[in-house]
Write a structure and sequence with these properties.
2 domains; rod-shaped
Length: about 120
C-alpha cells in the first residue's frame, strides 16, 4: 500500500488541512517571515543599542572637532594680537623716525645759520 493512499484514506480532511496549515506556519516561522514578540523585542533592542553606539561615537567626534576648533580659534586670536602689537610697534617706530628726521633737519639748519 502506498503511504499517500494510506494517509488520505485514514486521516480526516480537517486534520490534513490543519497539518498543512501548521506546516506552512512552521515554514513561515523558520524562514523569519513571521517573528515572535521575543524576536521582535530582541531586534528592537539590537537596533537601539546600535543607535546608542552611533550616537556615542558621533558625540565623541563632535567633541574632538569642538576642541580642535577652539584650539585654532585661540591660536588665531593670539596671532591677531601679535600682529596688532607688531603693527603698533611699526607705527611707533615710523613716528619716531619722522621725529628723528625732523630733529636732524632742524639741527642741520641751525648749524648752517650759526656758521653763516
Amino acid at each position: 500500500m502506498n503511504i499517500w493512499d494510506w494517509f488520505t484514506t485514514t486521516a480526516p480532511a480537517g486534520a490534513i488541512i490543519n497539518a498543512l496549515g501548521l506546516g506552512a506556519l512552521a515554514a513561515l516561522f523558520a524562514s523569519d517571515r513571521i517573528i515572535t514578540r521575543g524576536q521582535h523585542a530582541r531586534r528592537v533592542a539590537d537596533i537601539e543599542a546600535a543607535h546608542r553606539a552611533v550616537m556615542v561615537e558621533r558625540d565623541a567626534r563632535y567633541q574632538e572637532l569642538k576642541e580642535s576648533r577652539n584650539y585654532y580659534r585661540e591660536a588665531r586670536i593670539v596671532e591677531r594680537d601679535r600682529a596688532d602689537k607688531v603693527t603698533d610697534q611699526l607705527a611707533e617706530a615710523l613716528e619716531l623716525a619722522r621725529l628723528n628726521t625732523q630733529l636732524l633737519q632742524s639741527l642741520n639748519e641751525a648749524t648752517r645759520e650759526a656758521t653763516i
